[in-house]
Amino acid sequence: MTAYLIRRLLLVVPTLLAIITLNFFIVQAAPGGPVEQMLATALDVQGTDLDRVSGAASGEVAQSSGDSRAARGLDPEVIAEIERQFGFDKPLWERYVIMLKDYLVFDFGDSLFRARSVIELVIERLPVSLSLGLWSTLLIYAISIPLGIRKAVRHHSRFDVWTSWVVVIGNAIPSFLFAILLIILFAGGSYFNWFPLRGLVSENFDELLWYQKILDYFWHMALPVLALTIGGFASLTMLTKNSFLDEINKQYVMTAKAKGATEKRILYKHVFRNAMLIVIAGFPATFISMFFAGSLLIEVIFSLEGLGLLGFESTLQRDYPVMFGTLYIFGLLGLLIGIISDLAYTWVDPRIDFESR
After folding, report:
1. What is the pLDDT of residue 309?
2. With 0-12 CB in 10 A as exposed, 13-18 as middle and 19+ as buried, what is 338?
3. 45 within domain boundaries
4. Which residues cross the membrane (predicted)?
């Protein structure tokens, strides 16, 4: 297993290189980069100032069309300075090589529009994303696996029927819509004001005792995590149920029953390790989606500044250092979690031997 882990860890490097390379050239080829946005902003400012002067002198409303402002143009030296400021005075291949060299030492540069380093922004936003991704994923698995197993064991029973309705409703309601409902009910919307509406912790967090800090943290996390859990537990519950049903109907289960093995022993000693493989296989995708894409709307609704919102805002602004830095971090996390999933395979079913393959 050691040799397999070393090979997987070594494969992380070329995989990350491929991810960064592909996205770098795609993004660089897309129109509307940071230089274009800064030029457009400068034209707007210049046009506004000229319009005010023109309006004051003539007493008439100045024209506000984009064509007239673009026609006025900017000094070529100003354009060259903006390109130099953003590093676009260098050819594409040179910018790519510089980025790779910096990324080898985890130097992601500075944000183009926030006047802060990418590392500082990531570290500042990381607690929110970790909190949402970690607790929602753990809660989803803690609910879905036992519920899915029980539904499989009691297939077609009354319990299976009414819990299926719960799963269908949970699957039909998007996370962001359920988040709005939670705010209306419990965060001062229309009924109760039991939970805070914004922030990871309270403003007086530093003044609280240690146990009060823990309670305050989970008080703020309760509604966002619950909203994410409702949106994610349904599909995993049905996946667990169907996986266990498929294993329960196999011949080796019939054989174990014929030999007198108890239902509990059959379920947790034989069926569990086979049925859980497909559930474990989906863990990296579940965690990454909760960690990044799945939490974006939740961060917006609950005014939580996490990595999902940071990546989205950076994409809109074409803040390339932040875009590529967060992409690098999420790619690295996804690859490492994939390796952890392989280790979980061997823990659930010791018969799996990646080394021999």
Report:
1. 83
2. middle
3. no
4. 130-149, 161-187, 217-240, 275-302, 322-348
Mean pLDDT confidence for 202-228: 89
**CA 323 to CA 302: how far, in whole Å?**
23
If you average pLDDT over residues 168-189, what whole number do you get?
A: 84
> To the nearest whole number, what is the mean pLDDT of the chain?
79
Residue 122 within any structural domain of the chain: no
CATH number for the domain including 151? 1.10.3720.10
Residue 76 belongs to a domain: no
Domain that holds residue 159: 131-303
- Judge whether 233 lies within some domain: yes
| pLDDT tens sequence across 42-59 | 666 555 544 554 444 444
Q: What is the DSSP string of 296-308?
A: HHHHHHTT---HH
- Note whether 82 and 36 are within 8 A (CB): no
Residue 168: left if φ>0, alpha if ψ -120 to 50, beta else—which one?
alpha
Contact assessment for residue 151 and residue 233, using Cβ atoms and an 8 Å cutoff: no
Written as six digits, the tokens of 217 are 């943290």
How far is residue 309's CA from residue 145's CA, in Å, rounded to a whole number? 30
CB 253 within 8 A of CB 271: yes
Residue 52 tokens read as: 């005010």
Total domain count, the chain: 1
Phi, psi of 110 (to 5 degrees): -115, 150
CB 225 within 8 A of CB 298: no
* Cβ 272 vs Cβ 96: under 8 Å: no
User: Quick one: which of 119, 80, 96, 85 has its CA closest to 29?
Assistant: 96
